[in-house]
User: What shape does this take?
Amino acid sequence: MALVDLLTLAEEKPELKSKVYRELLELGLSTPDYCYLCGRCSGGCTSMRLLELKPHEIAALARDGFIEELVGSEIIWACAQCLQCRERCPQGVSPVDIILKLRSIAVSRGAELPEELSKMMMSILDTGLIQEPREVVGRSGRKYTREALRLPPAPRPKDMAAFSEALMSTLEVVLGGV
Amino acid sequence: MGYELELVIYPGCLASTELYACELSARRVLDALEVPYRDAEGLSCCGMPVKSMSTLAWLYLSARNLALAEEHGGDLLTLCSVCDFHISEARRVLKHSRELRAKVEELLDQEGLRYAGRARAVSMLAVLAEAAESGKLAESRGLSGLKVAAHYGCQTLRPSDMPRPDHPEAPGRLEAIVKALGGEPVDYPEKLSCCGGILVYTRREAALTLAGEKVAAAQERGADLIVTPCPHCMKMLDQSQKAAAGVVGKPLSTPVLYATQLVGLALGLSEEELGLDLNSSPVEKVLERLG
Ligand code: SF4
Ligand code: SF4
Assistant: This one.
């Protein structure tokens, strides 16, 4: 469903909006209230042409309180995190950071995490890295590991249990699927 | 100078687990340039993949790496622009918000770590650029006029409201390195466009389109090779070049090198030392040209 269609069913949610605003301020960024719809962000947006993401629309909808609708839309997963919108905004608004906040609300409400992100998260909890060191094949067909290349062992938190526990506590809402 | 303290090498997840050539060539080039660096135990992911789920998870991961660098009295030498951005951004946020900083310190305490806010992320690009600026690359055997297209990567350059290694709209340090090595920078209008390095985790097809268009643009302007300071960009432009060619329907065959692979070649380091067999793009074309 397109974002505009969703809006016909929409209803403002002031509490959610103030949560997003509070969290953006914590990051030292302007709230969407500063957006005057100049469109510069969308003009430079990597995902606009291919995936119809319009960061100015995200900022405006967040400003008008339609957080619920944004959180329910697949479009928030189309952002390339190219940072053009943050760079271009004359008002210090950062649509990409609004989008990341919307993603985390979506996930905390049980939206399915994109598979790749979910795999990386599980691996970080287990090993500290997005994946275990892999055996890779060169153009010659030769196989390589870190050891074969005489690289030191891959980094790993010293106290794995304490690390996992600390990280887990920051991801509780996500893992609990509240 | 971009770095005053000792450098703790921080390869990041991609270079540590898969794109070994980035880490290998970085270590060998640092040795060759006599830039001292050390390893620190206990490093982890910078938190990029979990930023979509929890701000605090990302801040904790970035901060613990900075805390480990601080234990060694050093800065983090980042080999990846995505790590460099996320760690630098975390440092900025932890300076800005007392509440977030208190929460992060509590988490670090569970691991026995302390964050004082001293250590910074220093990018490999900055280290190489400083080597070029100080004339350290001048004695290399050179790139014999090879035409090199620079791909900086989005997170290398933006946003300019915090310290980044080059100018967001008119960067020039990669070109300066190429010139110092006797190569010829090739300009192309798509230079600042995105390769899809993070988009690939949520919208694979679109990301491959971006990568394919990017390589095609450099190829059409006669580049002998593309150079990038970011493993995520390597993953797209080099490792995924064939897949990207399929998606955009163009015959792509342009060598792509990680920044320290290019510098290492010009310095005369061997193919093994630079892990050149691990690139997927046809780097033998470059080797033939250099003889
Ligand atoms: S960061 Fe996302 S929203 Fe912002 S310009 Fe890039 S793709 Fe568009
Ligand atoms: S650039 Fe900033 S002010 Fe302009 S539309 Fe985008 S968010 Fe709003």
